[in-house]
User: Fold this.
Amino acid sequence: MRYLARREYSYTELHNKLSLYVQEGEDLNAVLDELVKRGWLSDARATTQLVHAKRSRFGIQRIAYELRQKGIPENLIIEAMPELKETELDTALEVWQRKFGTIAQDAKEKGKQMRFLQSRGFSMDIILKILNS
Assistant:
């Protein structure tokens, strides 16, 4: 309960975290299923929380990767993507302006800016729109 009081966890993430403490004869899946049944554990809420926390700093690819790492089901990831796709260009532009703010003067600097935005999970077409405008 202490874990859930701090933030939302996915079923898989909480299972992995608690499996270290399970003793013989205890049924962790039954406990987690009961938490889901009572509404205290929700993959949908965990998805919403992570997307909300990361959307101002990262692109779709990076957020989707982090959701997969936390064991979020693919259908919930797909449902979250259209909302992120609408704002990805604006987000990438804000991230680029905070980090660099000026258009690259040479190929080396442009490459540096491209790699930075790629590491943040923005797609190449978004990166090219920003650097060519």
Summary: DSSP finds eight helices and no strands in the chain. The mean pLDDT is 90. The radius of gyration is 19 Å. The first helix runs from residue 2 to 6.
